[in-house]
């Protein structure tokens, strides 16, 4: 089972990406944790550590995949 | 079973997104078709019809999700 992280900040782009992309991952292979960076600012550094520059972003096996063109992390600090 | 389309143009960002995001979708719920727009230019209009502006992009239930910041469709024409 691989770990996937879905970082977002509650924006409309984020919500639709969460409900359609993060939720579409194969539950037999991926354990998806959803992290709301607007509410959990302490985890912004963790997202940056994976190379995340904007949200929403999906991190699969440690690799960041930014989805659509959301808010930059700098705006969340 | 829902249809998902993964539009790409063979670039490095595309390949890693394909192998990790498109391939991570739940095969029980999604039938993923991979479309190489560099080789199938006739399908660029189809991608644009879904609102795709750059590749790689995943289209799930008709909604476009651009992944990372790849090449714009205009560059493929």
Structure description:
2 copies of one chain form a homodimer. Chain A contains 2 helices and 4 strands. Chain A is α+β, with helices and mostly antiparallel strands. A 4-stranded mixed beta sheet of chain A has the order 2-1-3-4, with helices on one face. In chain A, strand 1, helix 1 (12-20) and strand 2 (30-36) form a beta-alpha-beta unit. The longest helix of chain A is centred in the first third of the chain and has 9 residues, at 12-20. The model of chain A has no long low-confidence stretch (mean pLDDT 91). The interface between A and B is medium-sized, with 22 and 22 residues.
Q: What keyword list fits this structure?
A:
homodimer; alpha+beta; four-stranded mixed sheet; 29% strand; globular
In the predicted model, the low-confidence regions of chain A spanning at least 5 consecutive residues are none
As a percent range, the share of helical residues of chain A equals 10-25%
Gap between N and C termini of chain A, in Å?
32 Å
What quaternary form is this? homodimer
Sheet with most strands of chain A: 4 strands, mixed
On the 0-100 scale, what is the average pLDDT of chain A? 91
Task: Write out the strand line-up for the largest beta sheet of chain A, numbering strands in chain order.
Answer: 2-1-3-4
